[in-house]
Each structure stands twice: as structure tokens, then as C-alpha cells.
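chain below, 287 aa
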Amino acid sequence: MTSTQRIPGTIVSLWRYPVKSTMGEELNAAEVTRGGLLGDRAYALVDSSDGKVASAKNPRKWPQLFDFRAALADVTGTREMVPPVRITLPDGVIVYSEQPDIHQILSAVLRREVTLNAIVRGHQDVVESALPNLRTAEAEEYWPDIEGLDHRDTVTDFGLPQGTFFDCAVVHLLTTATLDRLRVLYPLGRFEVRRFRPNIVVATAGDEKSFVENEWIGQILAIGDTVRLSITGPCPRCVMTTLPQGDLPQDTGILRAAARYNRANVGVYASVLQGGKVRRGDFVRLE
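prediction:
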């Protein structure tokens, strides 16, 4: 096998999160554009009082975001515009982004005045903001008192990449090898994919249990015949990984293990060199 044919594994799951910091949707296939998976973080809630993007990174301010679930209502013919989104509220009621009263409904549930804002994609997948002030949008992050983190027991502001609702990069990858390694290091923790909110989960060959993605940084990852991703750096973790969701309990040990054994990194970030269709079961190889 040559260096251009190294196969680290296959895609076992694909995830999209249409509204930032809410629960998302698992997919069988997805369109990858220069702006990431089509519809991923296409929307965000914005606090009307300070203009900051709502983020579960600050659960003291936004304790309910993981009780919401978002899914794209329709992606047909929407490659150059924002797709509509369907949001399931904590009580199970379903609302749509196109409803004229959507801002009021979400504000009432969150008990804080918010607006649901969208990112629109222009020609050639250039990401543009629906509102000019979102080009320099900010959010807040709470840092728990855990050894190994840059800040401890404090809240800091951070800027989002220009014209997007992403925290850092447009694609996030995670391997089963990393999850398995963390389970060995902290057996009491439930290291499940949903805690880490990746876009692409790769099952590595064999029974490998290691932070294998660290070795991908700086390399090109090929998916299928078309998609090419540039692995740009590690994905630093935050308090979101410790929060309860569904049947997963709150567990600060999740973040503590990542900080102690892998500098608080779990998974890697990537930019898109060439887009296309990706599917569950596609082979992933390093070029």
C-alpha cells in the first residue's frame, strides 16, 4: 500500500447541527461544501440584549439549549441559500424558522429575548452573513475549575470566524479509536459521540485505542472519490462535553480526562479543499 492509499477507516456516522448549540440530526449522507456540511450551524440564537450568539459553552446563561433539537426541513435546491429549519422545543412542540412568530416563541421558552438568525451562502459556497454585525459575532464560554484548562472558573468572550456561526473550523472529525482510548483512561465516563458533537465519525481498522487523529494534523484526508479535507488542528474541548443531555448525566470527569491525557483535545478540525457527497460507509484515507 502506497502513502497515497493509507486507509485510516470508514465513516460510521454523520452529524449536522442546524442551530448552533442545540441538538442536531444524524444523517446517512450529506453534501460537503466549502462552508462545511450543507446546513450545519446555518442558524444561531442571538441575545437581543448584548448581540452575543447563544452558546452552550456558557451553560450558566443558557442552561436549556440542549433541550432543543433542530433538523433541516428541506435541503432540495438550497445549495445557494439557507435551508428552512424545524426546531423541536423541550415540550415536544415543533416550530419552523419561517413562522412569523418564531422569535417570540423561542424567547418565551428561553426566558430571554432572542432572535433566530441565519447564515446565507453565496455563490461558489462563499459564506456570507445575513446580518452585517454577525461578521464579528461573539459568544461566551464558561471554564470550569479543571486542571489543565487555560482558564478556570471564569467566563470569557470569544469571536466566531468571520461570517459564520462556527466556533473555529467548518468540519469536525472524531475517531472511534479516541473514544475507546478515553474509555480505558476513565472507565466511569460515558464517552459517546453526542457529547463531542462531531460532523464525521470514523471507525478505525482493528482494535486500536489511541488519539489517532493527532497524527492526521497537517495532512489531507480523502473521502470517497471527491471530498478532500485539510486537517488543520486539534479540537480543544470545553464544558459542553460535561453537560447532561438525554440519558447522559453531567460528568466533569469527561473533560478532566481529556485535559489530563490529551491536552483537552478530542478529535480534529478541518477545512474543505474540495466538496462533494459523503455517505455512511465511505472509506477515508490519507493522501
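Helices lie at 102-110, 176-185, 193-196, 252-262. The longest helix spans residues 252-262.
thats it, cya
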